[in-house]
Amino acid sequence: KPGLLSYKGLNLIRNVHKESYLDSLPEIEIRDSDIFVITYPKSGTTWMQYVLALMFHSDELEGDHNKHAMRIVPWIEVEMDHSTTRLPRLFASHLLPSLLPQGLRKRGKIIYFARNPKDVAVSFYHFHNVSRLLEDKEDFNTFLEEFVEGNVFVSSWFDHVKDWYSQMDNFDMLFFTYEEMKKDLKRTIVKVSTFLKKSFDEETLNMIVEKSSFSNMQLTPNANLDTVSPDLFDSSKGRMLRKGKVGDWKTMFTVAQSEKFDKIYKEKMKGLPLEFVWDL
Ligand code: A3P
Questions:
Q1: Which is nearest to 115 in space by CA: 240, 263, 246?
Q2: Residues in the chain with pLDDT < 50?
Q3: 244 C-alpha to center of ligand 1: Å?
């Protein structure tokens, strides 16, 4: 497995993320219509990629195109030819504000999607065994320590959320959570479409809500890993849509691990005016 590459303090993946391309990213031109979904890994990126694909380029998900959601909403940090992408251009990213195209401070829209870090840790742990790009993890406790220290792909969850949250005013950005979306999918989709200034008739809206439900997406190859290159994922080891639950951490964390995590969380997130509360 290729291992991690530390790029300007952020852990990315060697072979996938090329330094010379990353160096050029801040200068890439941004258009008014560009839409970015930005997340820490395992926070529901695929979910938002799929919703955006349904909202803007749904024909590409099916029929002759038959594209995976992650090809319709590709990662900007992976080198590709952006010129052929239809408008609006849709991008996903795990990067921090300083590494992204700086034009985003004036143009384009950002959807930042965060999730309870304990559920992120559990989802991430399982994902290491499915991804051929990340090292297999045997012991959860060891992984949890690496996660807390930021010694994983995309480094520290705490730094990611803090960095983006505190820079919210510098971008045209909607900040919300996986938990909120789980609680009321339709309400969240309306909120996203209002933010993007895109209106849908009731029938289309209901179609988007229905297609982006966990049960539906789990059955959809273009939201899972089956149609993505087998060089990247071993789909026999697990699915992208694994459980899709809030609070799954309770099946993995011991009481001691949970208490220790809560303490670290409180310390690291101290002083951040977060308007939401995790069910830690
Ligand atoms: P679990 O591993 O807890 O099931 P990402 O896309 O950022 O890698 O995040 C993956 C996580 O989002 C997985 O969590 C996956 O199940 C969850 N997810 C993806 N689509 C979802 C949906 N429609 N509803 C609920 N959870 C979803």
A1: 246
A2: none
A3: 5
